[in-house]
Amino acid sequence: MSLAILGIGTALPPFSMTQEQAAELARLVNMPGDSQAAVLRALYRRAGVKMRYTAVPHETVLEWNRAAAELVASPGGVTEHVVTRGATTFERMQIYAREAPKLAVFAAREALQRAEVSAADVTHLVTVSCTGFDAPGVDIQLIQQLGLRPTVQRTNVGFMGCHGALNGLRVARGLAQADAPAVVLVSATELCSLHYFLPWQPNRFVGNAIFGDGSAALIGATSSPDAEWHVAANGACLIPDSTDAMSWTVGDYGFEMELSPRIPDLIREHLRPWLEQWLSENGVSFGDVGSWGIHPGGPRILRAVEEGLGIDPQATAISRDVLAECGNMSSPTVLFILDRLRRADAPRPCVLLGFGPGLAAEATLLR
Description:
Layout: E1 3-11, E2 15-18, H1 19-30, H2 34-45, E3 51-54, H3 58-68, E4 69-73, E5 79-83, H4 89-115, E6 124-129, H5 138-146, E7 153-158, H6 164-178, E8 183-191, H7 205-210, E9 213-221, E10 230-238, E11 246-251, E12 254-259, H8 263-281, E13 291-294, H9 299-309, H10 317-326, H11 333-343, E14 350-356, E15 360-366
Parallel strand pairs: 6-7, 6-8, 13-14
Antiparallel strand pairs: 1-9, 1-10, 2-3, 4-5, 8-9, 10-15, 11-12, 14-15
């Protein structure tokens, strides 16, 4: 049984910065020398991002930096510059608890409106996030502020990374199959800006250069005579010999991401063989895929997918547009892409793809 997609809503936070402003912020906050500043400029220039939106204003990150940098007098009377790590994880989670529900509620209201579904008709709620946790949290705020029934059944998909919304769609489809007639609200909200990394470590700055904040919501139902898009199948593949390629760790000063330069090569080597087999199992040949919704982990990830699958770069144009206009928002990003694909009446079958810690690939087949 498929899940009928009735409506999608999206939300962006109030603060924005161009990539040039983001690069200047990095120069101020990370305090690099001339050679380091050149590395930063190149990294930000090649990130494929032109604009991103954040729940945290630029001034807050600067304040974190000022609080982190202290002039300390050594026993010998010499003043030295000591850099700590900025705001603690507890302080960052306080911001998440305050700001994440605002975005989630806005996106969910828009999804309900576009789906022409009453909040009282929602039977199941699936929340997705990897950038913050709070209980009672976003799910309870959605129930209270949207007017969902107190009997709505809740499921949280946590810490699955950039493919989390695809996990959420799998849960929604499973709920619809098991509990018909169901109306499911999937809400994916991330505040990646809370985990801005302060000390000078170039391997950690990729996240600073590409991530933004956002929320997306989707209304799905067991069936609908008017729905043109349906979630028909879900797939997953843990790529071999890749556990060191991507990690997402809770630290004392935010969540810390490690991204290996091996990731593009792993995708090129392993993605197509698995994807062809999975599509075949679901009655679709690889050449029959009409459109692609690829999570834009960055330009190198998109190129690796194009090369690994042998698809034209034009097939990932919407993914590149979302990356350029909003940055990588982690889990909601693929729903932003799906929203644009639906509005453009993209040809189907359509395949959504995302990657997360593991290294794992997740796929959703839409008809």
